[in-house]
Amino acid sequence: MEYLFSPVKVGSLTLKNRIVMPAMHLGYCDEQGEVTDRLVSFYEERAEGGAALLFVGGCPVDRNAGSMKGMIGLGEDRFIPGLSRLTGAVRRHGVLIAAQLFHGGRYVRSDMIGREPLAPSAIASSITREVPREMTLTDIQDTIANFAEAAARAKRAGFDAVEVLAGTGYLISEFFSPLTNRRTDGYGGSPDGRMRFGIELAWAVREAVGPDFTIIFRIAGHDFMAGGNTNREAAQFAHMLEQHGVDAFSVTGGWHETAIPQITMDVPRGAFVHLASGVKAAVTKPVISCNRINDPSLAESIIRDGRADMVGLARALLADPEFPVKAMTGRAKEIVPCIGCNQGCLDRIFNMEPVECLVNPRAGREFEVPPVQKAARPKKIMVVGGGPAGLTAARTAARAGHAVTLYEKLAELGGQMTLAGATEERREMGIFVAPFTEQAKAAGAVIRTGVDVGEELVRAEKPDAVILATGGEPLCPPIPGIDGDNVEYAWDVLAGKAVTGGSIVVIGGGAVGIETALYLARIGAIDADTLKFLFLSRAEEPERLREYATRGVKQVTIVEMLDKAGADIGLTTRWIALRYLSQYGVRVMTRTKAVEIIPQGLWVEKKEGRELIPCDTVVMACGTVPVNPLEEKLRDLAGKVIVVGDAKKARKAYEAVHEAFFAAREL
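User: That's the sequence. What structure does it adopt?
Assistant: Structure tokens below.
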């Protein structure tokens, strides 16, 4: 890791390594935007973990900039004392800190600010569907001045740098884009006119902070909006900004409105590094590559190969604050990676809740939940089940100094998470099993697979406590014909144990049903390597290749009783799952009840009446029920019996991990 952990000069600053944490909206401030203990503790732990530079924000620069719940205030001097407390806490650890200057433009909702939002032109976004007010020349000059004042305020509060948020579809990128800038004055029209707002803003910020204070711009490397700016225009914008005092560039993906996923698990790791490389070719100042970089080897290769000068690890450091120090000290196998699930971060933000993390139960709770401490009286603990809940319980209890043995009746660990990662789009779901296992072993836990725990073993071991994380099993609904030879279960399909015919009906349109349908629909479609070979060889037309890549040999239909499929999938990822169903030709029938399975297919009941869907195979994906055969039997054999995860109640992995973590802490 010699490249990743080499110093780099950014403006007047020298970073000790090439790892930075981009700004994330966390929702940790109070309603007025004041810094809280939660925010300070969160960033202080990331500073202790070894990153070189932490960006915090977005920080609204004025009242028109918009403010989601819990954003960090920077628009008035009254915020300086709290911000100084934050910067002091981070800098005590030898880590630099920057404030991200934010203005939401047309993404701001009127109910946020009590007035019409401002934008370059009166064009609504697909997110708010509100028509903003076109900014006057006075509005433009006032806004530029407010950015400058916020930058000066950040400097007084002890920040080492400021980052101007000029991408993601917010105000500055709205001025730069021909889609959202229809002005006919000097701030519109030609590319030079559309860049003028950002350039004048850069001038004003430089004037406000002086010649030696570091200024970074965060830009979209490609808008991914039809008719919008591409990487070529982004590189041109960066080149012009560099001429006007900008010291570095953080390159992200597209706008919030784009139909191209940015940070979900279906996005390949490092998928947008090429955008940073395109910008880097046009400037001489350092460039940060961002989005879906969660592996130290990938980060090292990006720097080594000259594709970027630094890497931005936002959710990677949410998931594991010690990512840098673990990578630097040869403990990379213990890094718990962000899996791109969005369950604890973006889904919660859209529900107006503070950010947490599926794989890191302490994220956002550092101020009230300290690292696991050694127990005054170590106990003997049996953990039954090696899925996400069991592994979490084992590593947590072992870290507390307890004598922990985890038992898994199967040959492999992971439980349902292994099945959840069966499709390409969700391949990341199971990757935290290995680091959780490594951490449990490093803490002293013993892991035994292929052991079916019963009363005799517990009686022989005489544990002080047993944590039951025995998971769940498929729900078997009372549908006539469910015992037929043409019926399979989703779990067996995803495990590669089931044989299915050419036409298949999946009963159940939740997350498991959709995943199973995609798994089946992809059988027979060409793989990525073949697609690349055929494309580069010009063997087929691009549209024909798209067809080959999205059409397999099976016809798949989903039957769902509810009004919509994917009701149990988070808001920020459901649209992606539904789009994949469409791309792979999966038929989705909602408001449809399965009533009988016969050898010829599935009878369903709809509003219009009964209908037979002919098919070769029916696959059951109707949900999960707890498996907990031991709880009552063990009450008299162990000092304490605790049930966690799906063994207690079938839910998402997020709940299973968090529940197991806090249960093990209380031993």
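The chain has a mean pLDDT of 95.
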